[in-house]
TrEMBL record:
GO terms for molecular function: GTP binding; GTPase activity. GTPase involved in activation of the TORC1 signaling pathway, which promotes growth and represses autophagy in nutrient-rich conditions. One of its GO terms (cellular component) is nucleus. Component of the GSE complex. Gene3D superfamilies: 3.30.450.190, P-loop containing nucleotide triphosphate hydrolases. Belongs to the GTR/RAG GTP-binding protein family. GO terms for biological process: cellular response to starvation; negative regulation of autophagy; positive regulation of TORC1 signaling. The lineage of its organism: Eukaryota, Fungi, Dikarya, Basidiomycota, Agaricomycotina. It comes from the Eukaryota. This is GTP-binding protein.
Length: 371
């Protein structure tokens, strides 16, 4: 039984902020250089993007010219801002009209909070590559972020005082981005992570797989965009001080904090090279002096990265465990209830566990035997 979930995602920002360019880099395999030939978005462009087989992003790319924005806030207000899961709003860090940009954003945020109070709001302050050399400590970005958080607080307070809504569930998060580096993947991975169904279940299984593979971490990537979906152990994007004991013991604190996003960027570039040469990318495995690495398809829609620093770990053993886990992990995106025996799933509330006659509490995480 299909468990397809549709999520409405608004992509907004003033004309020229770079929103269509980033959408093309993430979802259409454009390089940053390729985006130079893109034109301005006219009114609203809708597209459907499928993740994990069970999540469909209904992406609304809204043109940023003043006339279009005025229309969104008047005659199209209910259509645009109803039933929104996420608003992604893009600012150009080089804009010379910041006060005007803020006023437009405040109006849009007000309309969103009225119609979709639980929507998450991601603000991407874009084109950071153009200012980083003159402002290496990113003081300008911090000032912009502070202004945006103040706008969000003001909108919440005004709506609550007017009695239009009792409480707003969606929070506002800011990310500095550029289509020329991995920061774009970090921001979009964070957005997608919050929309994935059964994310707690996925994380617990990744942690179990990490531990039986004697690995530092197990990381799940979406196959087409190569965005990071989830990771084992500590939460995705957490502070190094919040790593779990396995990560700390195996030296994860010393690893590059941008490593997942850099992998996304590298693999997407390599896949594009493979396509130009009429080859297909399948995966990667290697054993080095101090670590063993496997990047392998886990399900039809995902790849898994396993990194082990244990000298006993062999690529063949890692691949065997990945292949054993694959059928059960594939269930999360295609069914409403789980039918394969699993000790982790039994007590989880995210999906129905429907295995007849399974009353064995000593069951491991997954069992290939048919119920």
């Amino acid at each position: 039984m299909s468990s397809t979930s549709r999520k409405k995602v608004l992509l907004m920002g003033k004309s020229g902020s770079g929103k269509t360019s980033m959408r093309s880099v993430i979802f259409s395999n454009y390089t940053a250089r390729d985006t130079r030939r893109l034109g301005a978005t006219i009114d609203v462009e809708q597209s459907a993007v499928r993740f994990l087989g069970g999540l469909v992003l209904n992406l609304w790319d809204c043109g940023g010219q003043n006339a279009f924005v005025d229309n969104y806030l008047s005659s199209q207000k209910d259509t645009i801002f109803s039933n929104v899961a996420v608003l992604i709003y893009v600012f150009d860090i080089t804009s010379t009209e910041w006060e005007g940009d803020l006023r437009y954003f405040e109006d849009i945020l007000f309309a969103l909070r009225e119609n979709s109070p639980d929507a998450g709001v991601w603000v991407l302050i874009n084109k950071m590559d153009l200012v980083d050399k003159e402002d290496p400590k990113r003081r300008k970005y911090d000032e912009r972020k502070s202004d945006l958080l103040a706008v969000d607080e003001r909108v919440r307070k005004d709506l609550e005082e007017e009695g239009k809504i009792e409480g707003i569930g969606g929070v506002l998060r800011c990310f500095p981005t550029s289509i020329w580096d991995e920061s774009l993947y970090k921001a979009w991975s964070s957005i997608i992570h919050t929309l994935i169904p059964n994310i707690g279940l996925i994380t617990s299984h990744l942690t179990y797989l990490r531990d039986i593979c004697l690995s530092v971490e197990a990381v799940l990537f979406e196959a087409e965009t190569f965005l990071v979906i989830a990771k084992s152990g500590s939460p995705l994007g957490c502070d190094p001080s919040d790593l779990d004991q396995v990560e700390v013991t195996n030296g994860a604190r010393e690893l590059d904090q941008q490593r997942f996003e850099k992998i996304s960027e590298i693999i997407k570039g390599f896949k594009k090279t493979c396509q130009r040469n009429h080859e297909q990318y399948h995966g990667f495995e290697a054993k080095f002096d101090d670590c063993t690495v496997v990047l392998e398809p886990l399900t039809r829609n995902t790849y898994i990265l396993l990194v082990s620093v244990d000298p006993r770990a062999e690529t063949g053993a890692l691949l065997y465990n990945v292949h054993q886990a694959s059928p059960h992990m594939a269930e999360f995106a295609t069914k409403h209830s789980l039918s394969q025996k699993c000790g982790l799933c039994r007590g989880n509330k995210e999906m129905k566990y429907d295995v007849k006659g399974d009353d064995d509490d000593s069951l491991p995480a997954w069992d290939g035997a048919k119920p």
